[in-house]
Amino acid sequence: MSYVLIVGAKSDIAKELSRVYSKNGYDLYLAARDVNELEEFKTDLEVRSNMNVELVELDITQFDSHQSIYSSLKERPLGVIVVSGYMNEQHVVEKDWSESLNTINVNYTGAVSLLNIIANDFEQEKRGFIVGVSSVAGDRGRKANYIYGSAKAAFSTYLSGLRNRLFESGVSVLTVKPGFVATKMTENLDLPEKLTAQPSEVAQDVFKAQQSGKDILYTKWIWRYVMLIIKHIPEFMFKKMSI
Amino acid sequence: MSLISWGMYPKIDNEVHKLTTTAVLKETLNADNEFIAFGNGRSYGDSAINENIIHVKPYEYFLAFDENQGILHVQAGALLSDILDAYVSRGWFLKVTPGTKLITVGGAIASDIHGKNHHIEGCFSECVVEFRIMLANGEIQTAKKGDELFLATCGGMGLTGVILDAKISLKRINSQFIRQTTIKTKNLKETFDAFEEYKHLPYSVAWIDCLATNEEIGKCLLMVGDFADDGDLRYKAKSKLNIPFNFPSFALNNWSVKAFNWLYYNKAPNGVSKQRVHFDSFFYPLDSIRNWNRIYGKNGFTQYQFILPKESSFEGLEKILTKISKSGKGSFLAVLKLYGKENENYLSFPIEGYSLALDFKIEKGLFELLDELDEIVVEYGGRIYLTKDVRVSQETFEKGYPKIEKFREFREKNQMSKKFHSLQSKRLNL
Ligand SMILES: Cc1cc2nc3c(=O)[nH]c(=O)nc-3n(C[C@H](O)[C@H](O)[C@H](O)COP(=O)(O)OP(=O)(O)OC[C@H]3O[C@@H](n4cnc5c(N)ncnc54)[C@H](O)[C@@H]3O)c2cc1C
Predict the structure, then answer these.
(1) pTM above 0.90?
(2) Which of B61, B72, B86 sits opposite A49 (nearest CB)?
């Protein structure tokens, strides 16, 4: 049997990833806080795919629990996908330190805590894959969401270092940078249709990129070029723009 | 966000209430408003459109599968394509499927859809073991074959309540391929003879060249077949081609339709030929082009589908096809099908006979033409398919559906007529 561990399993992207992986013959560990809410979804996956699905109670910000949770999995996973993310509105986050800290911990510190443990294990086994869902928001700090963006930037950098370290042991690391995605989180925003991906598209893209051993995935692909331009606007101009 | 249906006409502003849990739905229905369920909007007209919409598609979990009996328990928003994605590789297929797999289970029940095997398997309701539905007062009831609620809901266009989940039975297959025979005919007489000759096969459908004239009226490609038996079930759904914007309306005119029909008809060999084709292209030729409805331009289009009793089918069709070819209003799609026995449901479309479905771009003069066609349909004892309709008159409609009064009484008795309405139900006083 081959398990994939999906962390942050309640998100829309994670749910679509669960469908894609179980459909392609993987068993799943779905990790999230309060997994009770995932019971029906677990059944849905099992009925659709005939694969095993197990729920794992895990809080990405409870760093101390990560080792014991990982050790208690009845079988070591073949791969891990970290989808957990947290974004509140910038004006709230910048005034409330606990919101800032939570943003940083969910998007960065927690992921590092968990992935350190898993990376060591995979390195020793000389197999496995790691997928981190970061964001195009980490490519450049913008006034609209730079606390979230900076945590994602740190996460992207972490993943890139991890990729270089694990290359020799044959463990692959994929960084996913989604642009706008039509999810619960963005339901009330008026997003441009052509730039907005459906969670199912993102999941398909991630699966393909992971299976083919890609390093960095922009999804939708157009974001690679959007961000290329945004990254190259000189700072003295950028600070005057409302991007 | 407003939802529109597949024909992109009519467009009205509506409030969309996503179905997430039954508790939330109950609360929603409590409000002093009228509602209509909306699945995936693949009905062409206004049957799923109103000011307040219950969007059922997000309610899409699979609940259980009984591998021994092939019975799937699934929430009403699940798409038929989800079912195929999950079960074809395990050797199961839908007993009844329409010409698109992008419809919800709830939509399939509410329209009591039919497929290419209606003459053998009947409508979708045949494979429905039971379903659960939320009624006007928020109460959840289970309906089984024989129940009045079942008779009224299958084909009842969402007007009895919101279907929540259903147990449907699947059929065994041993291949993802279809052994197809294509018969090219020269006129309507040959077409009818061919249907009769091949009616022992489970699947059949004919593409009619509806711009043909005189002796050639009714010439077609009839495709019949059944699943192959080669054990090849390694099914992977294909990705789709997208039509990203509305075609300018001049792209679709008499000439382009003629060219399309000509190409389609002429690429097939004369007489009888055999092919092995994938079920996706056999059942769902249009699904491979995502948003193909945009080909018709931003004014939208409609599908005119009627059925005539067997005895009068030949004469009636000849008359109607003559009228259409004279009008010069074209249709990419003109699909002719032979149907089996009528069922007991109050508003299900099929009766034993032949049905023709044609797509028309919405433009000046169209509705007048369709009214004229209606007269012929009524004259020959036929009826119009509600799920494709956006313009039929109450009078024409009622002549075709003798059980309408039973349906009305049932709705009245259960307070459904106070809570569930679509633009169509108001237009037709359903
Ligand atoms: C390319 C194409 C080919 C087609 N071929 C065929 C065919 O061969 N045979 C055939 O019979 N039909 C055919 N259709 C029509 C289609 O199968 C029906 O219109 C079907 O009902 C659409 O399902 P939907 O989920 O999109 O429902 P919608 O279009 O959203 O709704 C259709 C009706 O069902 C009701 N409804 C939907 N969900 C629920 C629910 N949960 N509870 C209660 N009511 C509900 C709505 O109120 C509405 O009255 C075709 C359509 C297309 C686009």
Answers:
(1) yes
(2) B86
